[in-house]
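Structure (tokenized):
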């Protein structure tokens, strides 16, 4: 669903007709809300999945050179002997 500003918004009501990605986003968003008091768990879930979609920060005068679209992701790890 798109809100009035063209951004995608995910509601909480379960709809079996939703595609698998939307269902996953709804589940992970609820998990994030439930784990928010345990900030490390919530942050790890966000880093791992990219959900929930967080509101972007467009201006932070303390850090004018920060790329606000950048999201840190885990790098793949290749095991060597």
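Design, position by position:
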């Amino acid at each position: 669903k798109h809100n009035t500003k063209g951004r995608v918004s995910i509601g909480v009501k379960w709809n079996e007709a939703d595609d698998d990605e939307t269902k996953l986003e709804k589940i992970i968003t609820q998990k994030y809300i439930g784990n928010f008091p345990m900030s490390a768990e919530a942050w790890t879930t966000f880093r791992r999945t990219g959900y929930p979609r967080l509101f972007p920060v467009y201006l932070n005068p303390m850090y004018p050179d920060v790329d606000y679209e950048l999201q840190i992701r885990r790098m793949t790890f290749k095991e060597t002997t």
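Reviewer-requested clarification: The chain is about 35% helix and 0% strand. The CA atoms of residues 15 and 36 lie 24 Å apart.
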